[in-house]
Every structure is written in structure tokens, then in C-alpha cells.
Backbone:
């Protein structure tokens, strides 16, 4: 039998384009079908070119089919990957209020070969990798930048049976409480409280966590810079069927927003670098590099991510315990939820996936959460409806209307100070980049997610502390 010989010009004649695909096709035929007749091989190659989707799972031809479809086989060892030629469809809640940069980033994420489903929340704006407000379900893979740098960043709200009028009549007393019992940015407590989190095995077996344990100990109970805050305000319950069993009305409340501090950032940077080395993607998608969960690095990141999330929760617990002691009262109820995280969940069809919520609130059926507005706009206590179209998610806040640099260029300290005074809000610290005018209208955001959450109550900030000079 004559040896099968294929030439590039023959493949070009049946429609193959010049480049890598021709060499791949010839190699595949020689590897798997070299004993077959020449004409049969050409006819099969023509069929694969015409209908590549029909050959994606056909042994021998699948590599050519996937190359034609713009796909690449996914392996635990990593390698060079291509994006799908067409992005999967995804819902955008409040699309008219979402900037084009966030949409473009989400379209790129929906072209990843590991992507199963996605959604964009109404507070979405451009970030790195996955946009802030982006929710992405992937198969057997976790994207460090799909989680974000501030791993496990969260909200925590405590309600107290204390007359709300005291926030006005004893304003200086409450300001001093925030000054004494909260720390921001590079500040930390001289005597941090100990916590069971530091006995976790991850601090022994995950190198990056072990290296940052001492720093984490020093920073526990403190908050980051940027949009992180601790504030006193008035919570107003409006749903008589609330899960706390509390009567309708107003309650003095403490609301905090912070994440996993320096340790979380180090974990994110470390595993993002590993992911980008193992999973090489086109330039526009390079920050979406993933780690498969059955790889050593993926397993390590998953453990480190969960540790960072629990550490962030411990930080909030310390904040609220310190303020509770200062108030001399135990809270009537506490609500906590987090974002910048990945969860193992099931879709409506029962398929198990990894759901990344980068700046998005879990909103499974009956799940409680807090969605803040700005320092002069109300936040909302919510109960998830379990909408699978949004991957059981909702917004994590109002979302930025201006970038940080834009806010600093266009706003002045005097106009922000005047606006805060008009709204009856006292600010300790903070910068122009966190001015209320830099954020979207929270009422519009909430209107765009009526199908995602029910509102149980509202929270109105009154005394706000953020990073910066008082």
C-alpha cells in the first residue's frame, strides 16, 4: 500500500486557511489515519472543516475540530489557550446603567473555554479580569482574578435596642467610639485580640498563608483603605416577617465593610501569577487565567481562599465585639454576607460549577444580605429570591459612577463637606474618591434587581469612619 502523503495545497483547495491548522491537520492524519486511502482522508478533512462542531468528540478528529472552533483542550497541566470565537449569552440587569468597559470585560469572560454561565449585576463597573459586579460559573476551575484581590470582602450589620436619637444628642461620644475601636489602612491595634482562626491547618501547610500569618495577626480587627468603612446609623425594618423576629421600626445599628487585609492580597497576587504562568491566554483575557481544582495549585488556592474569607469574617467579628462592648449592649441581630469569593454550587439543571462573585452578593433563596448605597444614601437589608438567571446573585452596592481618579479631578473637598452636612452625615477620614457623588443612584440599582432580592429594611449612615485623617 502506498504511503499516505498530504500536501498543504490540497488542504487549501478544500478550504483550509494558511497557517497552523494545515500543519495540525496533516499531523493528525499521519498520527491516526496513515493507513487509510488518500482520497478518504481528504474527504474526511473536508467534512471536519465544514462541520467542526460535529467532530468535537470524535476520536482522532477532535483536535482539528476544536482548533477550527477556536477552542483548546483543557488540561490540568496548563498550556496555551484560545478563546471561543463567540461569547455565550448572559443577562445584564440594569444594562442601560452599566458602562461599556464592564460589558466588554464580561463578553471576554464569556468566551473562556471553561465558562458555563454568567451574569452582570446592576452596579457593575470595570475592574481587572472579571468586572466588578460580574458573576461567572466555570467548570472544575477557579479564576483568582475572578475572585479579586480583597478575598472574602464582606458586609456586617448589628442591630441594637438603643434609642436612635442618641446618635444626634451624643454624637461626639459615638465619634470617639469609632476612633478608639476601629483601625484602617496601615493602622492596627497595639494589642490585637486572639482568634481561633490562627490555629487553622492552612497556616501550617499553605506556604503563602504561613508567610503572612504574623501580619494577619497584627491586622485582625482592622479595616482596609479605599471604600472600607465602619459606621453608626439607623436601621429601619419594613418587613414584619423578618427573620430576626423583631418588630417594625428603627434600631441603632453598626455597619462594617472590609475584607481579608494584607494576607488576602498576597494570596491573590501569588496564585494569579501561578495561574497566568500555567494558563496562557490572549492579551485581553490574561487576567482571567484559571487553575483547575484537581491541580495542586488549584487545590492550594481553594484552601487559601477559604482561609482568607474566614479571616475577613473574624475581622468583622472583632470590630463588632469591640463596639458592642463599648455600647454596653448585646446586638439583637447580626447579618453578614461576602463577595469577592468563589463557591461550589449547582445550576438549575443540577450541574455542579464554581460560581465566582466579584463584587456581587449571594442571593440564594432565603439568603440574607446587606447592599450598601453610599455614605449619604441608604443601604438595604435583603433576602435572596434564588433567581438562577443571575446565578442566585445580586449587586454588592450602588457601584461607581466615577472612577477614583475622575472623582479626585472633578470634586472638591468643600462641596463634599457641604453635601455631607446637608444630609446630616458626619465623616471621619475618607477621600474625594469615596464621595457620595462618585456612586450610582442606589434606588435605580435596587429597582433593576427586584427579581433578585426582597427588601426587609433600610440602613441610613449617620457617623462614618474610613481610612484617612479625621
Residues:
Amino acid at each position: 500500500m502506498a504511503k499516505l502523503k498530504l500536501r498543504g495545497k490540497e488542504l487549501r483547495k478544500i478550504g483550509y486557511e494558511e497557517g497552523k491548522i494545515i500543519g495540525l491537520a496533516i499531523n493528525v492524519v499521519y498520527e491516526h489515519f496513515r493507513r487509510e486511502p488518500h482520497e478518504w482522508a481528504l474527504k474526511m478533512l473536508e467534512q471536519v472543516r465544514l462541520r467542526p462542531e460535529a467532530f468535537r468528540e470524535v476520536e482522532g478528529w477532535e483536535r482539528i475540530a476544536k482548533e477550527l472552533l477556536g477552542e483548546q483542550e483543557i488540561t490540568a497541566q496548563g498550556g496555551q489557550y484560545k478563546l471561543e470565537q463567540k461569547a455565550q449569552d448572559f443577562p445584564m440587569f440594569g444594562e442601560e446603567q452599566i458602562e461599556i468597559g464592564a460589558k466588554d470585560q464580561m463578553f471576554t469572560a464569556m468566551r473562556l473555554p471553561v465558562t458555563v454561565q454568567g451574569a452582570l449585576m446592576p452596579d457593575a463597573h470595570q475592574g481587572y479580569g472579571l468586572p466588578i459586579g460580574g458573576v461567572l460559573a466555570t467548570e472544575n476551575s477557579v479564576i483568582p482574578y475572578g475572585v479579586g484581590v480583597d478575598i472574602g470582602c464582606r458586609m456586617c450589620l448589628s442591630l441594637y435596642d438603643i434609642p436612635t436619637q442618641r446618635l444626634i444628642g451624643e454624637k461626639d461620644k459615638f465619634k470617639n467610639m469609632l476612633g478608639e475601636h476601629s483601625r484602617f489602612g496601615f493602622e492596627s491595634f497595639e494589642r490585637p485580640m486572639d482568634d481561633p482562626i490562627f490555629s487553622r491547618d492552612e497556616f501550617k501547610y499553605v506556604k503563602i498563608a504561613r508567610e503572612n500569618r504574623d501580619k494577619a495577626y497584627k491586622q485582625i480587627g482592622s479595616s482596609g483603605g479605599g471604600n472600607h468603612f465602619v459606621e453608626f446609623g439607623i436601621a429601619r425594618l419594613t418587613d414584619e416577617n423578618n427573620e430576626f423576629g423583631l418588630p417594625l421600626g428603627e434600631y441603632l445599628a453598626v455597619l462594617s465593610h472590609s475584607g481579608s487585609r494584607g494576607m488576602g492580597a498576597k494570596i491573590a497576587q501569588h496564585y494569579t501569577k501561578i495561574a497566568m504562568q500555567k494558563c496562557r491566554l490572549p492579551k485581553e483575557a490574561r487576567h482571567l487565567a484559571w487553575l483547575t481544582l484537581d491541580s495542586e495549585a488549584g487545590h492550594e488556592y481553594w484552601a487559601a481562599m477559604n482561609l482568607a474569607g474566614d479571616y475577613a469574617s473574624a475581622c468583622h467579628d472583632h470590630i463588632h465585639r469591640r463596639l458592642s462592648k463599648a455600647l454596653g449592649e448585646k446586638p439583637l441581630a447580626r447579618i453578614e454576607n461576602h463577595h469577592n469569593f468563589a463557591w461550589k454550587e449547582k445550576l438549575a439543571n443540577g450541574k455542579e460549577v464554581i460560581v465566582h462573585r466579584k463584587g456581587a452578593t449571594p442571593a440564594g433563596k432565603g439568603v440574607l444580605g446587606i447592599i450598601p448605597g453610599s455614605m449619604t444614601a441608604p443601604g438595604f437589608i435583603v433576602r435572596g429570591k434564588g433567581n438562577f438567571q443571575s446565578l442566585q446573585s445580586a449587586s454588592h452596592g450602588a457601584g461607581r459612577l466615577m472612577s477614583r481618579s475622575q472623582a479626585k479631578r472633578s470634586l472638591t473637598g468643600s462641596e463634599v463637606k457641604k453635601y455631607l452636612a446637608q444630609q446630616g452625615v458626619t465623616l471621619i477620614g475618607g477621600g474625594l474618591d469615596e464621595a457620595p457623588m462618585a456612586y450610582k443612584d442606589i434606588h435605580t440599582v435596587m429597582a433593576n434587581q427586584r427579581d433578585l432580592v426582597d427588601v426587609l429594611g433600610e440602613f441610613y449612615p449617620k457617623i462614618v469612619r474610613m481610612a484617612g485623617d479625621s
The chain has 16 helices and 18 strands. The two ends are 88 Å apart (CA to CA). The CA atoms of residues 220 and 315 lie 5 Å apart. The chain has a mean pLDDT of 92.
